[in-house]
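Minimal example, chain plus adenosine-5'-diphosphate.
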Amino acid sequence: PAPPPPPPTQPRAHRDRNRRTVEAQMLRARDHYLRVLDDMPTLVRRLDRDGQCLNVNASWRTLTGIAADQALGDGWLRAIHPDDRDALAGDGEHEYRLMRADGGYAWIHEVTRPLKDQDGHDIGVLASGIDVTQSREFQEKLQQSNAELEQFAYVASHDMREPLRMINSYLGLIERRLGADLPAEIHEFLAFARDGAMRMDKLILDLLQYSRIGRMSAPRTMVDLNETLAEARANLGLAMAEQGAGIEAGALPTVFASPDDMLRLFQNLIANAIKYRQPGVPPQVVIAAQRQTGAWKIAVSDNGIGISREFFDRIFRIFQRLHGRDEHGGGSGIGLSICKKIVESHGGRIWVDSPGPNQGSVFSFTLPA
Ligand code: ADP
């Protein structure tokens, strides 16, 4: 083979001029890079391999009120909340408090990336962060008000049962004392009053149950939903036998969930499938699981009375019912709102489909896989 051609020779002056142009271009690029870094709202700091700060951008300096030369070396650490300094070690994402110029703290969400030289050796890290104080405060407030609301529902329902018990027992007492002398009509009135008190007690108990989901549920663990279904079936055995109901189920997955929440979810949906049957048609329930990306979708279908599209959302709201007290064995309208709260607290979603009245319903929910 022919020898490689000799490298092109250039006059020395020409070579120097080329090098100077490249150097000037690199300096300009560096200058642009630094300007962009300074103009960004993102807080940026660059550290060497030993965690010594090499530079911080203007956003960082403005927020902390610390001058560039004061931030160098270990200087930047002064602005980090003492309790959060350890959390900053290593690559990845961190959230920590950074002291503002006014002495208060800002929450920073930061991503750090290793910096390499041209040979791939570690030369330090580049950390870029954004101020997430507002969204954090908002989240905290939301959590707090949710907790307060649940606490309120819990306390209120607890305290309301006591006076109700009193009404109930005095109504009973009146009836017993005057029983023989009372006209039949008054007996009826008393029975209505007692019935009302009893229903109210049921509503309060339901509310109590609702407020307990999540807060008081059994801790999450791996739950085999085939076992959950078997348990739900056993609990509903009587109602199923009475109505000649059949359940057909495919293989169900194992999910990370609270076992008693799962039982209640299955039991509520199956109980509804039996309860909202068409007159004279034995209920047929079909349960099937389907794998989706990152989640399982589980569908509970029935051949019952179906639901009109306009009520698809409403039935999941607390105490919302589509039927009178005397139809379909009554109920307080809490079953599906409990299902919704359970599914959503597990990170899933629940919805209903139905072709229309008397054509059955399909309740579907997802759970993270
Ligand atoms: P409840 O059964 O106590 O009324 P739910 O919250 O369980 O409360 O259900 C709310 C409403 O949704 C019911 O009143 C009923 O009208 C409707 N519904 C629930 N499940 C079914 C079903 N499988 N088929 C038809 N309608 C249903």
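Residues 272-273, 276, 302, 304-305, 307, 315, 321-323, 331-337, 361 surround adenosine-5'-diphosphate (CB under 6 Å). The longest helix spans residues 133-178.
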